[in-house]
Specification:
heterodimer; A: 289 residues; mainly alpha; Cytochrome Bc1 Complex, Chain D, domain 2; 3 domains; 0% strand; B: 496 residues; alpha+beta; two-stranded antiparallel sheet; 32% helix; globular
C-alpha cells in the first residue's frame, strides 16, 4: 500500500517529464528547420508568397509525394538529368535556373524541412511569405547609392564588404571590378526582376555569399538601392562590355611598351655584345673595300 | 701602420714564349668540370689583340673596376641602389658569347659512321648544349695574330697612338706581338669583393688570396661585372661564381701554383710583400700619373726594423717576415722598379706585376727587302717595334715614363752582360748605359741572375702557411686524437 501510494505520483511525474522532453525536442527541431529555411531557401522560395526564382512551396506535398521531394532536394541537378518529367517542368518554369545543392542538406533535414513546409502551409499567413519590398519607382538617387555601395565609396550599414571586391559591372572605369565572382551586368534579368532579386539579396543563398553576408546582411534600403542599380546596369549598352575589353587590351599593350621604354632608359648603359659586332664591323669594312 | 702580408707575383714578359702550358695546367687541375669549360683562370693573350673575353680592357663596355667621383671611389658597375634594381639581371654582365662557347668534337662518329665513300668526320658540338655548333671564337682565338685587322686593330691599348704609329704596327715588315699571360691579380682593393651583394668574396687575411665562398655565393654575378680584368667567372652548372684561387691548397703545402710550376719559360715569380693596409683607399684615389708610385710606396721594406716590429704586432709570423725578406717580387717591384702593375688605372691595386717585354730588334726595309738586323747591338728603346705608348697604356696608366725606365734598365743589363761575356762592346759604354739606366753593376748582376739563372727556389719563395697552427684556432686537435684516421674533416664536394 505504501509502495503504491508512493509510485503513483512518480509515474505521473515521469510521464510529464517525458512529454516535456519530447515536446521540447520537437520544438527545437522545428526551430532549427525554420532557421535553416530562412538562411538557405528563402532567397528563392516563399510559402504562400508567390513565385520567386523558385516555385511557391505552399502545399508542395500535395503536388508530389514525399519520397520524390526528398530525392529532388538532395540532388536537384541529378534529378533533372534523369529525365524526370516533373523535374523538367520545374526547370522550364524556372527558365533554366537549376536549384543549387544546398549546403548541409541531408535526408533527415529534408524530412524536417518538409514537415516545416506542411505546418506552415496550414497557417493563414506563414512567417515565410517573403519580405515586403517597396513598390515605389526607383529614383536616380537610388541608382547612385547602389553604385556607391557597389564600388565601396559608401560602406554597408552592417559592415559587409563591397561588391567590387569580387564582382564587376560595366562602366566602373579603371580596371573594372573583380573577376573572382560572376559579372553582375544582367543579374536583374537573370533573377527575374525586382522582388526576386531583392529577396535574394536580403539573404544570399550561395555558399560563398552566405559565408560573407550571413552575419552582415544588407538592410532593406540598401537592398532597394542595389536592385535599382542592377536594373540600371541592365539598360546599359551591351557594346560597353566589348569596348571595355578592347580598352583593357590597349591599355595593357600601351603599358607594356611604355614599361619597356622605361627599362631601356633605366638600363641604358647595359652591356651589349662586343665580339659579334667587332667581327661584323670588320666584315663590313672588307666588303666596302 | 697596419702591416699585412700578401703573396704577390711577377710575370717576366720578356721571357714568355706563349706556349699556353700554364693555361693547360690550370685547366686540368681546376676547370675541367661541367659549367667551367669556358673558364680560363689562367689565359695567355697575344698583344696587340682583343684578349679574353673580347676587349675586356674596354671599361666603357664592361664597366669593371673603380672610378673617382668627387674624390671618392665608386664601382663603375654598380651602386648600392643599383645592386637592388639589378639584382636579378646584371646589366654589365657579359654573355658567354663574349668569352666563347666551349666545344668538343663528336669523336664517336669516327667509329660509328656507316661504311661509305667519304671519310667520317668528327663535327664540333657545344659543351653547353650538346648541339652542333659553328666554332667562331675561342679563348685564344687571336693567338699570334699580332697584325690582325680584326683583333689587333681593336686592342683598346692602341688609344693615343698616332696614325703613323698605328699604320707601322700593321705594316708587314714591322708586325709585332708579345704575350700577356693573365691570372687573377689578387688585388688590394678588389672590385669583385666590393660588389658582391652576398658578401661571398673575401681576401684572406694571412696571404691576401681573394676567394669566393661557394656556400655563400648566390650567383648574382656582381663580381663578374665588377672585376675589370674579367677574372671571376659564372659557373652555369652550379649557379655560383668561381675564380683563380692561386692554388692555395698547393701554396699552403709549400708548392708553387700549378701555372707557376709548369711555366716553361720560367717567367713567373712568387713571393710575399708586406704592405700598409691603412693606405689602400688613399692610394687607390691617387691621380693616374701618381698611381704607380703611390702603389709602390705602400709596399713596405721587410728589412726595416720598424716594419718588422709592426708586422709582428699585427700577428704576422716571423717565418712570413723572413720569407718577405727573400721575396723575388719585392726585388722586381720595389728595389729594381722594373715590374709594373697591369692597368693600375682600374684602381683595384693589382698585386701581380709584369716586367715589360723588350721588342725584337728593329727591322727596316732596304730597296724593298726586309733588313732584319739592326746596325747597333740593340736598338734604341724609343725605336721599339711595340710603340711605347702601347706599353704605357697597358702598364703605366697611360704614361710611358715607368715603362721606359724598366726597358732601359733591361737593355743596359743586356749590354753589360754582352760586354762581360762576349766583349764586342766596350765595358765603358756598358757602364755608362748602366748609370744612365739608374743601375749599379751589382744590381745588374742580381737582375741577370734572377732573370736568367734562377732556380726553382729563387723564383718561388713561398711562406710557410702554418696550417697546423691555423687549425688549432678552430679545432682542438686533442679532441680528435685517436678518433680519426685518414680522411677529411669536411668531405670534399666540388662541382656537381
Amino acid at each position: 500500500m505504501r509502495r503504491a501510494s508512493r509510485s503513483a505520483p512518480n509515474i505521473l511525474r515521469r510521464v510529464v517529464y517525458v512529454a516535456a522532453v519530447v515536446l521540447a525536442t520537437a520544438h527545437a527541431r522545428a526551430q532549427e528547420a525554420a532557421d535553416y529555411f530562412r538562411q538557405n531557401c528563402l532567397s528563392c522560395h516563399t510559402i504562400g508568397g508567390g513565385r520567386l526564382s523558385g516555385p511557391d512551396l505552399k502545399n508542395v506535398s500535395s503536388r508530389k509525394d514525399r519520397a520524390w521531394l526528398v530525392k529532388f532536394m538532395l540532388d536537384p541537378k541529378g534529378m533533372i538529368e534523369t529525365g524526370d518529367p516533373y523535374a523538367a517542368e520545374l526547370l522550364r518554369d524556372a527558365r533554366g535556373t537549376v536549384m543549387p545543392l544546398v549546403a548541409g542538406m541531408s535526408r533527415q533535414r529534408a524530412e524536417s524541412l518538409l514537415d516545416l513546409i506542411d505546418a506552415e502551409s496550414l497557417l493563414d499567413k506563414s512567417q515565410f511569405v517573403g519580405i515586403t519590398i517597396s513598390d515605389r519607382p526607383f529614383t536616380q538617387r537610388d541608382i547612385d547609392l547602389g553604385k556607391e555601395i557597389f564600388v565601396g565609396t559608401t560602406s554597408l550599414t552592417n559592415a559587409g564588404p563591397s561588391c567590387i571586391s569580387c564582382h564587376t559591372v560595366p562602366g566602373l572605369g579603371g580596371f573594372g571590378g573583380g573577376t573572382l565572382a560572376p559579372d553582375l551586368t544582367t543579374v536583374f534579368e537573370r533573377y527575374e526582376g525586382r522582388k526576386t532579386l531583392a529577396t535574394w539579396l536580403s539573404a544570399p543563398a550561395t555558399p560563398t555569399m552566405q559565408s560573407v553576408y550571413k552575419s552582415k546582411p544588407l538592410d532593406p534600403d540598401e537592398v532597394l538601392a542595389m536592385v535599382a542599380y542592377f536594373q540600371h546596369t541592365l539598360q546599359r549598352n551591351p557594346e560597353d562590355a566589348s569596348t571595355a575589353r578592347l580598352n583593357f587590351v590597349l591599355i595593357g599593350l600601351g603599358g607594356a611598351v611604355l614599361l619597356l621604354g622605361l627599362f631601356d632608359v633605366f638600363w641604358n648603359k647595359r652591356f651589349r655584345a662586343v665580339r659579334r659586332p667587332l667581327i661584323h664591323a670588320s666584315k663590313l669594312e672588307k666588303t666596302h673595300e | 701602420m697596419n702591416v699585412r702580408s700578401q703573396i704577390s707575383m711577377v710575370f717576366h714578359l720578356d721571357k714568355c714564349i706563349g706556349c699556353h702550358t700554364c693555361s693547360i695546367a690550370c685547366k686540368n687541375v681546376w676547370t675541367d668540370r661541367r659549367g667551367t669549360e669556358y673558364m680560363w683562370w689562367n689565359n695567355v693573350e697575344t698583344k696587340p689583340g682583343t684578349g679574353y673575353p673580347t676587349k675586356w680592357e674596354d671599361q666603357e663596355k664592361y664597366r669593371g673596376g673603380w672610378e673617382k667621383q668627387d674624390d671618392r671611389l665608386r664601382l663603375k658597375s654598380t651602386t648600392k641602389f643599383r645592386t637592388v634594381t639589378d639584382i636579378f639581371h646584371n646589366p654589365s654582365g657579359a654573355s658567354m658569347d663574349d668569352y666563347y662557347e666551349p666545344w668538343t668534337y663528336k669523336y664517336a662518329d669516327l667509329f660509328n659512321a656507316p661504311e661509305g665513300s667519304d671519310q667520317p668526320t668528327a663535327m664540333p658540338i657545344s659543351m653547353v648544349t650538346g648541339e652542333y655548333i659553328n666554332v667562331e671564337a675561342g679563348p685564344n682565338w687571336d693567338d699570334d695574330l699580332g697584325g690582325s685587322p680584326v683583333y689587333a686593330a681593336n686592342d683598346p691599348n692602341l688609344e693615343g697612338l698616332t696614325e703613323v704609329q698605328r699604320q707601322q704596327l700593321f705594316a708587314i715588315e714591322r708586325l709585332v706581338f708579345f704575350y700577356f699571360p693573365r691570372i687573377c691579380n689578387h688585388c688590394l682593393n678588389p672590385g669583385c669583393v666590393a660588389a658582391c651583394p652576398s658578401g661571398a668574396l673575401y681576401k684572406r687575411g694571412e696571404d691576401g688570396i681573394v676567394l669566393i665562398d661557394q656556400k655563400r655565393c648566390r650567383g648574382w654575378r656582381a663580381c663578374v661585372a665588377a672585376c675589370p680584368y674579367k677574372k671571376t667567372f659564372y659557373n652555369w652548372s652550379t649557379g655560383k661564381s668561381e675564380k683563380c684561387i692561386l692554388c692555395f691548397p698547393r701554396v699552403e703545402t709549400g708548392q708553387a701554383p700549378a701555372c707557376f710550376h709548369s711555366c716553361v719559360g720560367r717567367i713567373r715569380y712568387l713571393g710575399v710583400l708586406l704592405y700598409d693596409a691603412d693606405r689602400i683607399e688613399d692610394v687607390a684615389r691617387s691621380e693616374d700619373a701618381g698611381l704607380i708610385d703611390a702603389h709602390r710606396s705602400m709596399i713596405l721594406n721587410p728589412h726595416d726594423p720598424a716594419v718588422v716590429e709592426a708586422a709582428r704586432q699585427n700577428g704576422i709570423h716571423d717565418a712570413v717576415i723572413q720569407s718577405a725578406q727573400q721575396s723575388p717580387v719585392y726585388k722586381f717591384v720595389k728595389e729594381w722598379k722594373i715590374a709594373l702593375p697591369p692597368h693600375i688605372e682600374f684602381r683595384t691595386l693589382p698585386m701581380l706585376f709584369y716586367v715589360p717585354p723588350m721588342s725584337p730588334v728593329m727591322a727596316s726595309s732596304e730597296e724593298g727587302m726586309v733588313k732584319s738586323v739592326s746596325d747597333d747591338f740593340f736598338h734604341d728603346i724609343e725605336q721599339a717595334r711595340v710603340p711605347l705608348q702601347f706599353l704605357g697604356n697597358l702598364f703605366g696608366a697611360g704614361h710611358q715614363a715607368k715603362v721606359v725606365y724598366a726597358l732601359k734598365k733591361q737593355k743596359a743589363i743586356r749590354t753589360y752582360r754582352r760586354a762581360l761575356t762576349v766583349g764586342d762592346i766596350s765595358m765603358d759604354v756598358a757602364r755608362r748605359m748602366l748609370t744612365e739606366a739608374d743601375c749599379s753593376p751589382e744590381e745588374a748582376e742580381a737582375i741577370y741572375n734572377l732573370t736568367s739563372l734562377c732556380t726553382f727556389d729563387d723564383r718561388f719563395v713561398i711562406p710557410p702557411a702554418h696550417r697546423e697552427e691555423a687549425i688549432e684556432m678552430m679545432l682542438d686537435p686533442h679532441e680528435h686524437r685517436a678518433s680519426t684516421g685518414f680522411g677529411f674533416v669536411d668531405a670534399p664536394k666540388r662541382g656537381l
